[in-house]
Structure of DUF2795 domain-containing protein:
Amino acid sequence: MNKANPIRIQRYLSGVDYPQTRDGLVRAAEHNGADAPTLEALRGLPDRMYEGPSGVSAEIGGDS
């Protein structure tokens, strides 16, 4: 997965109710007009429940 900007991704996830599944995050980002790199990054997340924005950002940021 390409490194994506977690801040940009959170902008597209505005209004998401957590906990949320990966597919739910993708749907929310699509609804909010996310660009292709953002959607690609979200689709590349592990298929699990995300408890909040920090968990999404940590996963996308590679915990580096």
